[in-house]
Amino acid sequence: MEGTIALASRDELGQLASAFNSMAHELHGSMIHRSELETLVKRRTDDLIQAEDPLHQSQKLDAIGRLAGGVAHDFNNLLAVVMACSELVIAELDRDHPARAEVDEILAASQRAASLTRQLLAFSRKESRNPKVIADVVESSTRCSAGSSAKTSS
Questions:
Q1: Which pTM was predicted?
Q2: Mean pLDDT of all residues in the chain?
Q3: Residue ranges of the domains in the chain?
């Protein structure tokens, strides 16, 4: 066999040579051929490539979540101004004032929008909450715009 050491001695050097020969024989029997090694490398490379797709998708979703959180935060700041101004106007208007109903609707709509914004912020933080159906918001927006268009057409 190639790589063997031939010593006919029984001393320590002979025992060492015998141990080396035994190890060399075991290693030679367990060696992987180059084609097998290339196949293993290709398989591992393919596995890594397939694992990259879900990783990229996860990174995209994370970026969308961060963007939604930033937009929701800024929008929430704007809503706070709308709600505060609405509350100030309501405090100044009599109950029977013609604009009171519209200002009440502005305040209610901004409060519903703030609730949706909180849900977006919770999503961006990956919190689990029970999302409300936005039909209420759509219905009230439709009602508000229908009321204002009826007044402008009269």
A1: 0.50
A2: 77
A3: 1-31, 33-153
